[in-house]
Design goal:
The complex is a heterodimer of chains A (212) and B (10). Chain A has 212 residues and is mainly alpha-helical. Chain A has 9 helices and 2 strands. Chain A has one domain. Chain A has a two-stranded antiparallel sheet with strand order 1-2. The chains are: A mainly alpha (212), B little secondary structure (10). Chains A and B meet through helix 1, helix 3 and helix 5 of A and loops of B.
Amino acid sequence: MNVFRLTGDLSHLAAIIILLLKIWKSRSCAGISGKSQILFAIVFTTRYLDLLTSFISIYNTSMKVIYIGCAYATVYLIYMKFRATYDGNHDSFRVEFLVVPVGGLAVLVNHDFSFLEILWTFSIYLESVAILPQLFMISKTGEAETITTHYLFCLGLYRALYLLNWIWRFYFESFFDMIAIVAGVVQTVLYCDFFYLYITKVLKGKKLSLPA
Amino acid sequence: MLSVAYKDEL
């Protein structure tokens, strides 16, 4: 464990909690892409099946349980409890265009052709594009609530911190995982234009609105 | 390359 990975995990946890609290407190999931949240629930489910097979640490196990629990709670709030506030018309990204190619790539490019490893690879590839429906929805509505931008900032920051973690682990532990690194770079690059808007607008107290 | 069992990252 190193400071980049720990802050990365805490940033990820913060993002998940911010979103859950935003929906729960405001009793609304306006502006939130339910499709992205379903993809994240799939990412965690396919990545953390090793909860059943191997124990690494209390921290590792508890964080995985929290991530999976919050992901499904968020999906439940969006599609069940507060479904009246779900903006399905703007959440129109065709996720099959993500899941199918990612599934194919996971079968073709992986470290080991075993069930758990292919699922893990699938979850790594899927996570790198899982935010696209959310970013697409914001580009369609042309704006985002400030709390949603904080959620997205923490979520984008987490994988950026993981990139620093992999640099650290490469030098100090000669560990590297090319699949996770390449997918992590893609994932972080997808947030770049959002990061620019967040830093130039939201941090200056303005609302995030895109030129329609 | 690390097998799944040693995937200690979240």
